[in-house]
Each structure stands twice: as structure tokens, then as C-alpha cells.
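Board notes (copied after class):
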Amino acid sequence: GRAGGRLRGLLRSDMGGARVAPGAAVFVEEYTPKKLLCLLGAADLVLVAAFTAAGLAVVKEEEPKRSDDLLVLKILVPIFATVLLGLTFSLRHYHVRVGADGNVDLGYSNRMVQKRFNAAEVESFSKTNISWLEWGGCGVRFHTCKRVGYVTESGPGIHAKFANGAVVVFNCKDQDAFLRAVASKQIA
């Protein structure tokens, strides 16, 4: 009821389901990457349609060439559809947060596609313009072991260079606010 709504207003969900007070985050940017979800949803529909068409072709044959054809399709369609739907679900929400403790959290809904580091560990932050074509698509992209991109779309982003040579590039619509938030946190 009303008390529950006020409580939800005072508390917000953080990584791992932990609750933090509203003032604990210095910078928060959260959104749904619509282009990425549309691409994954379309890929899921195309895949299911292709397997369904292939399945109907096998069923229409009076004597299938192999009796296993239909069985394979009955197994593959649900597996591929489930994998793509799971991927779509995992990437449904994108966030960039800078905590009062200097921790930067970024990534998608699923913990497996999130990154967390302290701003003090970063040698330099700079503005960049991200091109999903340059990264080979959207999502978590690896150019090398030391260069990772969290790409939701082409547009404004942040380039974080670590002392060990590692680079993390990620979308951030409000670059100036992010850079101000981490500027005071980089002093060790």
C-alpha cells in the first residue's frame, strides 16, 4: 500500500539485491537499451521461424529421409529459443553507477555481464564516441583480453584506462556528470 510505496521511494535496489540509502550513489545512469533488445528479439523470431519452417517441411514429407530429423528439430527449436530469450532477458537493463566509496558499477541486468572497479584504480577517464560497428555489435564486446566494451548503442561513452594497460569502454550519456563524479574518487 501507501507505506510500501514510500519505503520503495526511500530505498533503491543495488547490485546483488542489496539496499542502499538514496545518498549512497554519487552518479546513477540507468536505461533500457532498446536497439539491443530489438536486435535480439528479431534474431529470436527469425530463428524460431526458420526452425518452424524446416520442421513443417520435414512433417509434410510422407517418408522423412531420416526419422531423427523431426526429433532433432523438436529439441533444437526450444533450446535456441530459450538461449536467445535468456540473452535478451540478461541484457534488458543497463546501468552506470558511481558510489560514494568510489566504486564504479556498470553493465547489464545479469551479474555475469557486469563490471565493478574502484575509480582510484583507473589511470585516466576520458570522453569517447562509441561506434557499435567498430566493436562488432552491441553487448559485452572483447577486442583483446585487456580491451573490453560495454556497448548499448553508438554514441557518447567513457574510456577508462587502467595502470596495467587494460581498457574498459562503456556507454554513458551524461559524460560530464560521470567525469565530475569520479574526479574526486580517483585521489587515493
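Comment from the instructor: Residues 94 and 108 are 4 Å apart (CA to CA). The radius of gyration is 22 Å.
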